[in-house]
Specification:
Largest sheet: 7 strands, antiparallel
Number of helices: 5
Oligomer: single chain
Helix content: 10-25%
Radius of gyration: 18 Å
Number of domains: 1
Strand order of the largest sheet: 1-9-6-11-4-3-2
CATH architecture: Sandwich
Length: 264
């Protein structure tokens, strides 16, 4: 497989700086919605070089399919397993994207920003958050139909998530991940148990990162609101999903929800 170490380092440096320069919002949980995560020229290359549809595999054909049984949520695992399925001329680009996002530099920037929320999840002090053993997976996702995901928590070993949106324009704005608060019982006769407080704009070269775990302070309720138009049609929802997990991949080798990060 062709690789591009120079491009990977360039993306990682730019992304880490962008994350560090973006203010963190503490309501309803620690999160940030950075823009310009890729250098402009790299983002243009990505838009022009989305892999062919047959390089993607279904996330879950049982759960996500259209009336004809065709998968509506597909992915390519970065930086190796899925990249091996795409055309050779695109492999070095998407390898560089995957290795950059999964780099220690980007992870450290995200964990530093979310340290206050990550500390109780990892049962450590804030200063120790970046010293914990973690591993990471990244996937390029291609979705042709909207869906609904009610407010929920992520269970361990998941501890942090970053989504990077890859639309060509703002026509799909409104399709980003939502964050919620949770009402105490005495308020529920007057309002819904969960209330959407933030929704990430689905805009070019933008994203969101947060820790979606259960915590006493600032629990990470998150979900996805169904769009008014369920079918996206000619403008698929393309994004990069990165998840950080506790421990190492070998510890969770039997988990069907954790993407492998490289070929054996």
């Amino acid at each position: 497989m062709d690789t591009d170490v120079t491009l990977s380092a360039h993306i990682a440096d730019h992304m880490a700086k962008t994350i560090k320069d973006t203010a963190v919002d503490n309501t309803p949980c620690q999160h940030a919605m950075p823009t310009g995560l890729f250098p402009d020229d790299v983002y243009e290359r990505l838009l022009k070089n989305i892999p062919a549809r047959d390089a993607f595999r279904p996330m879950s054909l049982e759960l996500f399919h259209d009336e004809n049984g065709v998968s509506t949520r597909d992915l390519i695992e970065l930086p190796e397993i899925g990249v091996a399925r795409i055309s050779k001329d695109l492999q070095s680009l998407w390898w560089a994207v995957g290795t950059a996002i999964m780099s220690q530099k980007v992870k450290s920037a995200v964990f530093e920003a979310l340290a206050e929320d990550l500390a109780p999840v990892l049962n450590v002090t804030e200063s120790q958050v970046n010293d914990q053993e973690v591993f990471v997976s990244t996937a390029l996702r291609f979705e042709t139909e909207s869906y609904h995901m009610p407010p929920h928590f992520d269970d361990l070993p998941r501890i942090a998530t970053m989504l990077i949106y890859l639309p060509e324009d703002d026509s799909l704005d409104g399709l980003g991940t939502s964050l919620y608060d949770y009402a105490p019982k005495w308020q529920r006769p007057f309002r819904a148990a969960h209330r959407e407080l933030r929704r990430a704009p689905f805009l070019p070269n933008s994203g969101i990162y947060f820790s979606g775990n259960e915590r006493k302070k600032r629990p990470g309720w998150h979900g996805f609101e169904r769009a008014n138009t369920a079918t996206l049609g000619e403008a698929p929802r393309v994004s990069l999903l990165t998840t950080w997990y506790t421990g190492n991949q070998a510890m969770h080798a039997d988990s069907p929800d954790i993407l492998p990060v490289s070929r054996a």
